[in-house]
């Protein structure tokens, strides 16, 4: 009987210890899985902010923000995704909410200023940037400062901001293009042409800079296409831009020839160029 009691107690103790071991293992396993979940969540956030469809990213971050409303990373993700989806009025509200968060940074305020500019609220964007200490220096901040100075036609300040922005980025094409357009609006066509050329050297896929370069050349009466990389459709588009520039300067016959060449160059029907050429030939 004593032997049976000992065996029973031994089994009970063993079972109890086994249960403790399993509980401990479960706790430890839960901890490990929590760590994995945090890593996976971080990676998923990064994926949604880059390669994911922006509207899908918006839905993802909306759900995440609703389930954990205090998480600023989800709020930032939502605001950034709304910008990527070109839903600027919503992005403006989202970035304002991020800035109200106790963990908000100066770069969040810069992002709010960017969203305000995208909704054409330049005055409020300037106020937001002015509220940021001058010690906070970033490429995005100075690019926005330059754009605001441009809008106020404060050319000296704009040039200074563009120059600083260039020194803070390894991808200068967009800054060169913006600065070139600033020069174009001032009538400094030669300097604009130089800046657009540098933008294309930095990013040969930037069609906006190519088109702006042709505009700057056309404004100077130079109606030859620059020697830059271009696809056949791009060549047709650039000829079209050059043709319109020629017409604007009063060189109508040259403009007609360029528009005709644009129509012939495009691999598909080029409706805009064909319509402009037809209007000129009809004496419009």
Structural description of this entry:
With 284 residues, this protein is mainly alpha-helical. It folds into 3 domains: 77 residues, Tetratricopeptide repeat domain (Serine Threonine Protein Phosphatase 5, Tetratricopeptide repeat, Alpha Horseshoe), CATH 1.25.40.10; 86 residues, Serine Threonine Protein Phosphatase 5, Tetratricopeptide repeat, CATH 1.25.40; 55 residues. Helix content is 77%, strand content 0%. The chain is built from 14 helices and no strands. α2 runs antiparallel to α3, α10 runs antiparallel to α11 and α11 packs parallel to α12. The longest helix is centred in the first third of the chain and has 49 residues. The N terminus is likely disordered. This is Lipoprotein, putative.
State the CATH superfamily name of the largest domain: Tetratricopeptide repeat domain
Pattern of helices and strands = HHHHHHHHHHHHHH
- Number of separate domains: 3
Distance between the termini: 117 Å
- CATH structural class of the largest domain: Mainly Alpha
Indicate the overall shape: globular
Beta percentage is under 5%
CATH topology of the largest domain: Serine Threonine Protein Phosphatase 5, Tetratricopeptide repeat
- Oligomeric state, counting identical vs distinct chains: single chain
Q: Which architecture of the largest domain does the CATH hierarchy give at level 2?
A: Alpha Horseshoe
- Tally of individual helices: 14
Rg, Å, rounded: 30 Å
User: Uncertain segments of ≥5 residues (pLDDT<50)?
Assistant: 1-23, 26-39
What structural class do the secondary elements suggest? mainly alpha
Q: What is the helix fraction of residues, given as a range? A: over 70%
For the secondary structure, the number of strands is 0
């Amino acid at each position: 009987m004593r032997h049976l009691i000992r065996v029973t107690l031994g089994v009970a103790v063993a079972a109890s210890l086994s249960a403790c071991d399993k509980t401990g293992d479960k706790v430890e396993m839960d901890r490990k899985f929590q760590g994995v979940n945090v890593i996976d969540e971080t990676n998923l956030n990064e994926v949604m902010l880059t390669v994911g469809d922006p509207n899908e990213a918006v839905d993802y971050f909306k759900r995440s923000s609703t389930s954990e409303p205090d998480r600023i990373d989800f709020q930032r993700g939502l605001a950034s995704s709304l910008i990527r989806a070109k839903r600027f009025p919503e992005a403006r509200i989202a970035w304002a909410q991020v800035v109200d968060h106790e963990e908000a940074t100066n770069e969040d305020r810069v992002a709010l200023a960017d969203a305000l500019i995208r909704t054409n609220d330049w005055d409020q964007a300037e106020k937001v940037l002015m509220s940021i200490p001058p010690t906070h220096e970033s490429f995005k901040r100075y690019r926005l400062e330059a754009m605001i100075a441009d809008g106020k036609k404060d050319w000296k300040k704009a040039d200074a901001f563009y120059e600083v922005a260039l020194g803070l980025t390894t991808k200068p094409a967009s800054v060169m293009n913006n600065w070139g357009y600033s020069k174009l609006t001032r009538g400094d066509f030669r300097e604009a042409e130089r800046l657009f050329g540098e933008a294309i050297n930095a990013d040969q896929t930037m069609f906006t800079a190519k088109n702006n370069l042709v505009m700057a050349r056309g404004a100077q009466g130079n109606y030859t296409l620059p020697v830059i990389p271009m696809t056949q459709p791009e060549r047709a588009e650039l000829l079209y831009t050059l043709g319109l520039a020629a017409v604007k300067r009063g060189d109508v016959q040259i403009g007609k020839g360029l528009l005709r060449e644009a129509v012939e160059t495009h691999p598909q029907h080029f409706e805009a160029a064909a319509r402009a050429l037809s209007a000129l030939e009809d004496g419009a």
